[in-house]
């Protein structure tokens, strides 16, 4: 008898910490969004910071609510064991909740970049980055939906992971922008651009690493057991 038969089966890795980490990353932007919606609903006094939201509240409310739905549902869509056990929910949530919410997040973000009277520090380079990220997120969602229609599950998961990574950029921006602001005060236009772009790049790189690992795992030959 082979010794491999005497070894206990390895315990599957717990996946819930992944969802918890993603939810934690989205927590601060969600908290800020809840504050903004409360501010709008209560009719707060317009200031230089919130005047654009008070004058035209619909786009930012759509963006905040859709982002909350997208971040929350998306945190559980990438857990393989949960997906296998509740495949019907995975498909329902992706088709009727996650993809529509993601499209609203990207579209409303692009709209606000184009039409809101943003601070001068966000007018040029940062705005260009937001246009690029919003456009890529829309494209990734469309490509992910097209992939699942042709039953290309690997491509579907990869495109959806890329879109989700960009959407969570706001959470990572808390980490890339918060400490420098505490240490050095308000950033320059270049520093603001670097801080914002660093968050999107970090998320995109992490997503590509996960996608590459999944591809490598799927190509491993199946091992035979006695």
Automatic annotation (TrEMBL):
Annotated coiled-coil segments of the chain: none
Pfam families xref list: DUF2306
Domain of life according to the entry: Bacteria
TM stretches of this protein: 56-76, 96-116, 128-147, 159-178, 190-211
Keyword vocabulary terms for this entry: Membrane, Transmembrane, Transmembrane helix
Protein name: Cytochrome bd-type quinol oxidase subunit 2
């Amino acid at each position: 008898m082979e010794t491999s038969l005497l070894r206990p089966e390895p315990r599957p890795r717990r996946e819930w910490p992944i969802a918890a980490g993603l939810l934690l990353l989205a927590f601060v932007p969600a908290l800020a969004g809840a504050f903004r919606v409360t501010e709008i609903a209560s009719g707060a006094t317009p200031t230089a910071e919130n005047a654009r939201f008070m004058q035209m509240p619909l786009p930012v409310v759509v963006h905040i609510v859709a982002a909350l739905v997208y971040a929350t549902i998306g945190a559980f869509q990438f857990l393989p064991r949960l997906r296998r056990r509740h495949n019907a929910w995975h498909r329902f949530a992706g088709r009727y909740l996650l993809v529509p919410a993601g499209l609203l997040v990207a579209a409303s973000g692009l709209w606000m970049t184009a039409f809101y009277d943003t601070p001068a520090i966000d007018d040029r380079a940062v705005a260009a980055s937001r246009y690029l990220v919003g456009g890529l997120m829309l494209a990734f969602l469309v490509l992910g939906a097209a992939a699942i229609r042709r039953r290309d599950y690997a491509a579907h998961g990869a495109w959806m992971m890329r879109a989700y990574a960009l959407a969570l950029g706001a959470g990572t921006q808390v980490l890339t922008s918060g400490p420098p602001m505490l240490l050095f005060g308000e950033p320059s236009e270049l520093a603001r651009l670097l801080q914002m772009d660093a968050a999107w790049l970090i998320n995109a790189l992490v997503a590509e690493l996960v996608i590459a690992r999944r591809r490598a795992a799927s190509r491993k030959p199946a091992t035979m057991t006695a």
